[in-house]
């Protein structure tokens, strides 16, 4: 059974930093591209950042460039999202996604971790 478990969310002040993590089990973690999505109340889920299965390619949504950093440690089956210079509009539930595209797409999701940016 595949599981992705996020952790590290919480309340942080504007301008602060937070690192969230996602640990995978039940899958060959290193073979999956890993992504972070977020969903704010009343809004659609949006892609925040992605990292390739080899860890050599990363991509970010424009509003996160220069502030967020995605990384992975395949020895620990873990993907991280370092978030700096946080803004109130970064408040959302952040979801971890494992993605593999072979003959068809395979996607696994975590349950999400809440990040709240507020004074």
What do you see in this structure?
With 119 residues, the protein is mainly beta. Helix content is 0%, strand content 54%. It has strands at 3-7, 10-12, 18-25, 33-39, 46-51, 58-60, 68-73, 78-83, 92-101, 105-109, 113-117. It is globular, with a radius of gyration of 14 Å. The relative contact order is 0.32.
Average pLDDT for all residues: 96
Class per helix and strand makeup: mainly beta
Total strand count, please?
11
Distance linking N and C termini: 40 Å
What characteristic shape results from the CA principal axes?
globular
Number of continuous helical runs: 0
Q: Write down the secondary-structure element order.
A: EEEEEEEEEEE
Largest sheet: 7 strands, mixed
Low-confidence stretches: none
Helix content: under 10%
Residue fraction in strands: over 45%
Described by its quaternary structure, the protein is: single chain
Question: Could you tell me the radius of gyration in angstroms?
Answer: 14 Å
């Amino acid at each position: 059974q595949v599981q992705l478990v996020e952790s590290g969310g919480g309340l942080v002040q504007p301008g602060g930093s937070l690192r969230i993590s996602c640990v995978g089990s039940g899958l060959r973690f290193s073979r999956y591209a890993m992504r972070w999505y977020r969903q704010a109340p009343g809004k659609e889920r949006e892609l925040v950042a992605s990292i390739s299965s080899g860890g050599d390619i990363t991509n970010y949504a424009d509003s996160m460039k220069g502030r967020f950093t995605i990384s992975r440690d395949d020895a620990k089956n873990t993907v991280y999202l370092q978030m700096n210079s946080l803004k109130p509009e970064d408040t959302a539930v952040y979801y971890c996604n494992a993605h593999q595209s072979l003959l068809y797409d395979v996607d696994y999701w975590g349950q999400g971790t809440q990040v709240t940016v507020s004074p």
